[in-house]
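Quick question, first post here. What does this chain look like in 3D?
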Amino acid sequence: MITSKHIHVWTLIAVGIVTCLMCIFLFKHEVLGIVPVTHVSEYAEKLFDQNTVSTIDIQMDPKEWQNMLDNALQEEYVKCDVVINGETIYNVGIRPKGNTSLTQVANDPNTDRVSFKFEFDHYVKGQTYYGLDKLVVNNMYADATYMKEYLSYDLMDYMGIKTPLYAFTSITVNGEPWGLYLALEALEESFAIRNYGADYGKLYKPETMNMGGGGKMPNEGDRPEMPQGDKGGQIPMQNGAEGEGGKIPMPSEAEGESGQMPIPGGEGGEASQMPTPGNEGSQMPTPSGVGGEKSQISMPSEEDRQMVGNKPPEMPSREFPHEDFKDKGQGMPMDRDSGGSNLVYTDDNLESYKTVFESAVFKTSDEDKGRVVTALKKLSLGEELETYINVPEVLKYFAANTILVNLDSYLSNMQHNYYLYEEKGQLSMLPWDYNLSFGTFQGGSSTAVINFPIDTPVSGVSLEERPIIGKLLEVSEYKDAYHNDLESAIASYFESGLYEKRIDQLDALIGDYVREDATAFYSYDEYKASLTVLKAFGRLRAQSIRGQLEGTIPSTTETQKNEQEKLIQADSINLSLLGSQNNRENFKR
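> Answer (accepted):
Ran it through. Tokens below.
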């Protein structure tokens, strides 16, 4: 029994303990394993400051560097040290990455400019860069503007879509200039914690292409590393996924309940000011020529760049969308064995969705997989859609992709370049890979691209074959919401002048880096010419969408085919100058 004379002491002790716990909760909540939704990570400020160009120096033995480039299609990690903005992270895994971009560059004798993936914990368990587990740097393949992917994410972020963090970075290798890349937060553990908190759901990246990496399908191109550990701040070094394919298990009642994922609020303010590359510490070193033996860092001479331009080889032209485009995407048959990547429900057998489940980013069980199949089944029936699909997020995602005419995606027979997120049985879509946005994937006419129909936003397939958007557009309420997302985006991002302002700001930020890019696919003159076309795309695309929303321009593939005289005529602009896989009409330097 506590006597009265001791009550005061115990009260003070209790108050002290409560105060300490409150301080930990408020200021050091990660100590308790509590990570809030939309957690602001330190790496976001350290590496993804969009007002500057960061610097990344890759330090490794020159022979090992060249061997990695010579065997890029193997996509095997090698050890390096990475200096980010002057701070060294030791023993980091690095490998080439990509699908078409990797294959084309690896087979081109004139360039070694591949994209890379850094895994900070590949050799040192638990190592991160201020909380970032994996980093991607993209090589600007097929992008004369250097901005297509950046602007795509910028639009989606503006619309309130969960996107990876992104910013420009100047890469050097052992101190020698290499090139201007786009740095991206990989959609893995760090991304999940930042956006959903420690109690995040499951993430999948279905990939139907087998074009790079020597057929290593489980880790293809942008494919995440094999499933990693359990939830929490540290990333355990575990591999493999639980469970065998079979009939889906019935989820428990608790897991079957609807869990609405938070709808992020987009940044709607003025564009931030972006300084020019004159800022101290961000200037990319001026190329001074690379001497030494062939085993040293391999970069083309300025003469080679002027002659060849390091451009990817030409690809076949693919026209769209005023005809039946089936079997036209990249010469591949429509919806070849998709393994569920088209998100079409077929049956309850987990093996029917092997492309989805083999792409799991995190460790999954049959029960986890069963929740995905259940959601797809409900989607196919059009039942309880708001329980099984995060309708607001999915509609925004597809509105953005429609505006961008992004067809190297789920919207075509490629049926890839997206992440599927599942939490408590509810599905949503997350963006990835936009270097061929702005209608530069299939090489159609400029008029066809500018008038890409908002109510049938697919190419080479039907809406029935893309149910996660097709089924939603069958519901008038959801179609209206989708139209509202389109209208809001074109009004506030394009018609307001913000889009062109963004381009001017980015040009001021990266122009000098582009001019001095040691391994560039395009010349500085081509870059400058592309920006005029990029601005024209925004003006004309917004004009067409406005007309489609108001009914003055047909909004489906069929009606556009029959009423072509009502379309915005845009063949006076040459969209190939934006950069594409075709590169048919790029002017000579």
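Residues 524-550 form the longest helix (27 residues).
The chain is about 35% helix and 10% strand.
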